[in-house]
Amino acid sequence: MAIQNPPVSQTRSFSTVFLIEMWERFGFYGMQVLMVTYMMKKLGFVDSKANLVWGAAAALIYATPAIGGWVGDKLIGTRRTMITGAIVLALGYAMLWIPSNNPTLLYCALGVIVVGNGFFKPNAGNLVRKIYEGDDTRIDSAFTIYYMAVNIGSMVSMTATPWIRNYVGEHYGDALGWHTAFGSCAIGLLLGLGNYVLMHRTLAHIGSPADEKPLSLGRVAAVLVASVAMVFIAAAILQSLSIAKGAVILAGVVILGIFAYLIWISQKSERAGLIAALVLTVQTIFFFIFYAQMATSLNLFAQNNVNLSFEMFGVHLFTWIPEQYQNLNAIWIVILSPVLVFIYNGLGRAGKDPSVAFKFALGFAAVAVGFFMYGLGAMSAVDGQVSSWTMIWGYGLYSLGELLVSGLGLAMIARYVPARMGGFMMGAYYVAVGISQYLGSVVANLASIPEHISNPVESLSIYISLFNKLGFVGIACTVVAVVMLPLMNKLSASHAESRTPLPAVHSEE
């Protein structure tokens, strides 16, 4: 809860949240970048099972923040819930540090990570919003810098953890290499928590009303019991693909039911906006299906069909580890973000800034071209191996699409959904994004490689077939977005900005 004349500057308060967020994302992306290949190479999962297990985990990771934000606002406080989440996440990564290849331990560790992320993610963002509450001139810049923290943490970890795995594996054994890499994620969280202990006074005046009240033992006990139960529920969902599939179908029915109910009870003047919000939610789900390929099909494509040596004009520059190619997403986000801001500002000064709906269509077109780029690279493949530069340009277009599409979802829904339905709608939106994570793993399995195929030439055609299909789906999404432009422009003209839009949902949120 922000107060007038805070005892410390906004910048110092923001720096505290910025740093713990950076280390939290270091841990999360360091774990994510290795998880699918760990399940295949150390636990013996086939690629289709590894994809689905991670897809189910990602779905839960995206859905639980809707609950964690409520816990922070109403039960134990925003600051307390954020720190609780960081501690729980460190525990989850530490469980992966244990040198065991027991799948049950993995499922339980992922369950702990699901709960920790649910506590941490929404409350860290809420603290940033509360720090700059009432300061509209600085809040946009603050969230832009905050998003940079995400990409700094992910860039470092997605480069470091595969290298740690390889280095420790070569010198001390392969098994120790994997678990030490996961252990580094736990160390990252501990560093973030240590920094928070040193700087926590800068946030003493920031938080929800619950932060200012003594902890209620009853509420703490209820949160603890519910958290433990959620860990076991998540573990059960992850180890049973049929339960995971059923949960996703149920969640989809619930989301459609929520939209149908809201449209039914809405006033006539509100229905066009709600229908538009439904279309945007479906479009965003399609985007996150594309996004889910990074840790699944694109990751495995790099394992099997990419020449890992970067060369320019016949000169060898460096060699990457296959998992490190996922890092290209964060690198391109850092490169493209200021470029887009510069373009938007220039067009805005000229009165020609394109509508967000147009940016939506342009983003899907970029994603489509990005996936077609892999097929283009395959035309010059040598022995089933495409050039590393194919990955660079494919990820570049894919990341441009992310900046144009995923950053607009909640902000546009906030514009078109009546204020009295806003909180309900936000939770439904997050669950919808979680559904798309699981659907993304199902789509990735269209490129599942049969066990009898080990020749890169044969696997290349399988992956390229999937990427071309995704390219055509991207074109279809572009067409739908273009068709929706007149309605979106009409809604934008008729809906006055009566409230601050919800924060943008980027790739990691």
UniProtKB/TrEMBL annotation:
It holds the Pfam family PTR2. InterPro entries: Dipep/tripep_permease (IPR005279), MFS_trans_sf (IPR036259), MFS_Transporters (IPR050171), POT_fam (IPR000109), PTR2_symporter_CS (IPR018456). Its main location: membrane. Keywords: Cell membrane, Membrane, Peptide transport, Protein transport, Transmembrane, Transmembrane helix, Transport. SUPFAM superfamilies: MFS general substrate transporter. PROSITE patterns: PTR2_2. It is a multi-pass membrane protein. The chain crosses the membrane at residues 22-40, 52-72, 81-98, 104-120, 141-164, 176-199, 220-241, 247-265, 272-292, 330-348, 360-380, 392-417, 429-450, 470-489. The keyword Protein transport applies. It is found in: Cell membrane; Membrane. NCBIfam families: yjdL_sub1_fam (TIGR00924). Belongs to the major facilitator superfamily. Proton-dependent oligopeptide transporter (POT/PTR) (TC 2.A.17) family. This is MFS transporter.
